[in-house]
Amino acid sequence: MIRFDRISSRRSVSRKKRAGMMLVELVSGMAIVGTIIGVLAFTLSRVLIANEKSHEHVTMLASLGRLGEQLRLDVHAATAAQVTGGEGDTSRLTLTTDAGLVEFELAPTGLTRRVKVASGPEHRETYQLPGLRPLGWQLDEAGRQVALRVGRLAHGAEEDSIVSSQFLISATRKAVAPTVPATESTGGSDATPSS
Q1: Are 71 and 79 in contact (CB under 8 A)?
Q2: Strands, DSSP E only, in the chain?
Q3: 113 pairs with which residues across the strands?
Q4: Is the pTM of this model over 0.70?
Q5: 104: which of 1, 21, 30, 93 fits an S-S bond (Cβ 3.0–4.6 Å)?
Q6: Residue 191 region, left (φ>0) first, then alpha (ψ -120 to 50), else beta?
Q7: Domain residue extents for the chain
């Protein structure tokens, strides 16, 4: 029986020790919780950065789509196209339409479209292109094919970034039928053209 008492007394002592948490358990639990919170905070910050970048990308694509559609409409309506600027500079495109002039002027982060009509006020529209840089206009010899050269910036939207790749936004002017002056018939006979 003596032996039985010793075993039961040891068990009661170990139960008293296990009633609370040890300092090592508390510290290790806090370290695990801290690690989980750190990983979650890092993941959340990455998700927020990705969300911001995707928002900028969607904004850029929408603006690029609007610009491409408007450029196509303006070039199709144009009767003449001219690229102007300084020496080696192709920063301005002027389109002559039946209603007036349409000018596209390049800026470091986008471009501005101005419509000048004789019977109304000037209309201005700005296209912001984050992450892109308009590089210049191209016009073929016949003046029918108009293209905007755009560069994608290597390091996001910083103005001093290097252009990593280029692409064209192009449109073709519709062929304008040449006007033939009417000729007066002489001799009083009705001449019918042969087919």
Answers
A1: no
A2: 78-84, 92-97, 100-107, 110-117, 123-128, 132-139, 145-153, 163-172
A3: 104, 125
A4: no
A5: 93
A6: beta
A7: 47-172
